[in-house]
Design brief:
mainly alpha
């Protein structure tokens, strides 16, 4: 039973049900706050995810160019 309660699908299902119940009984002012927080967090995630990809990619490229510096002019032609 403990394995089922701590599983990710069960936690997601409980979260969705709780969200629906809170949405039904909450007033409009509270829901405006929830929507605002959702929008701000969405914008933050949309800003940070490409930065993470750039950081990972640039560190990988720096590691390659440190090992083989002759590839730098070759790769700049295709950039």
């Amino acid at each position: 039973m403990k394995k089922i309660v701590t599983s990710l699908p069960f936690i997601l299902l409980v979260s969705v049900v709780l969200g629906i119940l809170v949405g039904l009984v909450a007033n409009e002012a509270f829901m405006n706050v929830v929507v605002t927080v959702k929008y701000v967090l969405g914008q933050l995630i949309n800003f940070c995810v490409p930065l993470l990809f750039l950081a990972i990619d640039s560190s990988r490229r720096a590691r390659v160019f440190r090992r083989r510096p002759s590839r730098l002019p070759w790769s700049l032609r295709f950039a």
